[in-house]
Structures are given as C-alpha cells and as structure tokens.
Amino acid sequence: NVTPLHVAARRGPTATVALLVTAAANPTLINGEGALACECTTRFTVERSRVQRALRAHLLSVASWTGWLTKLGGQRRSWRRRFCVLLPAELRYFSDASLTVARGHVSLRQRLYEQLRSPSFYPHTPTPFSFELGSGKAPSLHHGAMPSCPAARTS
Questions:
Q1: pLDDT tens digit string along 64-84?
Q2: Which helix (H) or strand (E) holds 7?
Q3: CA 134 to CA 138: how far, in whole Å?
Q4: DSSP 117
C-alpha cells in the first residue's frame, strides 16, 4: 500500500513531490503502516524540510477541516490541545499546526451515527461543545471552543 507520493516523501527531492502534487496525487492515502505521505520523511530524505513543507501544505489544502481541538488523553486521561485535520476516512491529530509530530488518529470508517455522542457526558468536559467517538473502555473525547465547525455548515 505504498503510493508514489509516499516514495517521494521518503526519498525526495522537492521537484519529484511537486510533480506528483501537480498531477493531483492524493495526500490523504495511508500506507501499510498507517502513515500519510507527510509522515514518511526520514533523515535520509533529500531536501527533507522542503519536502515536508510541500507535503503538509498539500494535505492541508485538501482537508475537509483543520483546526484546534482539545482531546482527552488515553493513558493519563488529561486534556491536551491538538491540531486536527479532518480527512475522508479519519480525524488525524498533531502536536502543532505545522504537523511535525503526529499524535494519533480516529478512524471514521465505522458507522459513526451509532458511536457519535454530542455533547459528551464524560465528567469535567471543559465546554458543552464536545463530542465523543467510539464505545467501550476508551472512547475518543474531543471538545472545541465554538458550537459548530465550518465543515459541518450547510449554508
């Protein structure tokens, strides 16, 4: 499950990535390890920082929504601010808006209407504008500062 964009991310240079971006390569596809192309650069990538910037910009340009949410951590159960990118099949979250450190993802392939709860009933949720995805022992809880997100607006 490796796309040409994943290969270009790993090897570089920027010209190859730019060529694939111009040819409408899909930056939302994941490889067999579950990584996006922008997460595949290594210290051996030719022109690494330029390749990373190009791939991140391409991903952000095709995302349905991007912005800050606060996510309840899985192990320590503390609220952490994360930069989120809404893609067709998942919600990815990162440490910062430059997408340098991927922190995880929530798959949207399941039947969400059965697993989405808003507002969340989790104790001490910081705002009423919250949602909970999943079921079982560790649902993914998120909240935002505003009552609606731009991607969800119909007008």
A1: 999 998 888 777 778 889 999
A2: helix 4-11
A3: 8
A4: B
Summary count for the chain: helices (H), strands (E): 4, 6
State whether residue 144 is helix, strand or coil. coil
Query: 108 exposed, middle or buried (CB, 10 Å; 0-12, 13-18, 19+)?
Result: middle
147 or 54: which leads in pLDDT: 54
* Cα–Cα distance, 21 to 61 (Å, whole number): 11
CB 116 within 8 A of CB 131: yes
Report the mean per-residue pLDDT for the chain: 83
| Burial (Cβ within 10 Å: 0-12, 13-18, ≥19) of residue 53 | middle
More confidently predicted of 136 and 6: 6
DSSP 27-78: TT---TTS--GGG---TTSTTHHHHHHHHHHHHHHH-SEEEEEEEE-SSS--
pTM: 0.79
Residue 150 pLDDT grade (very low, low, confident, very high; cuts 50, 70, 90) = very low
Specify which residues 83 forms β-bridges with.
68, 94
CB 69 within 8 A of CB 84: yes
